[in-house]
From TrEMBL:
Entry function: Removal of H(2)O(2), oxidation of toxic reductants, biosynthesis and degradation of lignin, suberization, auxin catabolism, response to environmental stresses such as wounding, pathogen attack and oxidative stress. These functions might be dependent on each isozyme/isoform in each plant tissue.
Transmembrane segments: none
Disulfide bond entries: C29-C108, C62-C67, C114-C316, C193-C225
Residues under site feature: Transition state stabilizer: R56
Name of the protein this chain belongs to: Peroxidase
Organism: Urochloa decumbens
């Protein structure tokens, strides 16, 4: 039943996406998913806090030039790459991607793209963190261009309101439901102080702290985040459950305890607010898991390169 579901979700997408296939490597690298999963089990077992960062890498890749692994490329002389853009400075997990890619190169040289590796790693991260499984259609190719300017311009900002976020998501063929569902990825991981400190200090001429943030929670965050310049301190995006993929994120948001302004923004729109409040009851975990799977499949299909486009990188951080 899984394969028809995947093709059903692919139907109606662009021609490039139609060329992605379940079992794309069945003849050229039949054990690709098993190899990725085995290595991911080792990585997350050794460092459970990497679950959020590895999922975030895939998000940040797909929102700039599509899911083409351009986020993994190193900067070159005269060309600043995506990973060095300001919103990407806190990205982690690059060495884990290199580790998985090396295993695949040993088993199937010059066959599996870094873009597919990143997509599979994101799925397996969620599964290992007790989240849903979804089928991943493969066949993405790797891009040859990576621009810090594009990343700074196109990534959804932590301070985004619903109109801005809706516009950014729409540019990737993702809708309002995808926005509120994919925000649920904030159940995993931690965030650096500068990404939310503006909500705690000198928020506006009328308020020191963001009035949409629960005041008790704001006080608690201030004990960890002493100033806007505190780059070392980390806070859990889903306090008490940041290594487990679950629905508790929505319960925090419903109580006005989302860490980012973009989390709080979900309560300002009737459609997204209703979804937050429904999932926050804890009675619809299965609905969220299914919705998240569908939105991840949609996001994983954004702007993909297929066929003769792009290349299959030998090392994910440098073009061939």
């Amino acid at each position: 039943m899984l394969i028809p579901l995947a093709f059903l979700l692919l139907a109606g997408s662009s021609l490039a996406v139609a060329q992605l296939e379940i079992g794309y490597y069945s003849k050229t690298c039949p054990n690709v998913e098993a190899i990725v999963r085995e290595e991911m089990e080792k990585i997350i077992s050794a460092a459970p806090s990497l679950a959020g960062p590895l999922l975030r890498l895939h998000f940040h890749d797909c929102f700039v030039r599509g899911c083409d692994a351009s986020v993994l490329l190193n900067s070159t002389e005269g060309s600043l790459a995506e990973r060095d853009a300001k919103p990407n400075k806190s990205l982690r997990g690059f060495s884990s991607v290199d580790r998985v890619k090396a295993k695949l190169e040993a088993a199937c040289p010059n066959t599996v793209s870094c873009a597919d590796v990143l997509t599979l790693m994101a799925r397996d991260t969620v599964v290992i963190a007790k989240g849903p499984f979804w089928p991943v259609a493969l066949g993405r190719r790797d891009g040859k261009v990576s621009s810090a300017v594009e990343a700074a311009d196109q990534l959804p900002p932590a301070f985004g309101d619903i109109p801005l976020l809706t516009k950014i998501f729409a540019s990737k063929n993702l809708d309002l439901k995808d926005l509120v569902v994919l925000s649920g990825a904030h159940t995993l991981g931690m965030a650096h102080c500068p990404s939310y400190a503006d909500r705690l200090y000198n928020f506006s001429s009328a308020y020191n702290a963001d009035p949409s943030l629960d005041s008790e929670y704001a006080d608690r965050l201030r004990t960890r985040c002493k100033s806007r310049d505190d780059k070392a301190m980390l806070s859990e995006m889903d306090p008490g459950s940041y290594k487990t993929f679950d629905t508790s994120y929505y319960r925090h948001v419903a109580k006005r305890r989302g860490l980012f302004q973009s989390d709080a923004a979900l309560l300002t729109d009737p459609t997204t607010r209703e979804y937050v409040q429904r999932i926050a009851t804890g009675k619809f975990d299965d609905v969220f898991f299914e919705d998240f799977s569908e939105s991840m499949i949609k996001m994983g299909n954004v702007g993909v390169l297929t066929g003769a486009e792009g290349e299959i990188r030998k090392k994910c951080y440098i073009v061939n």
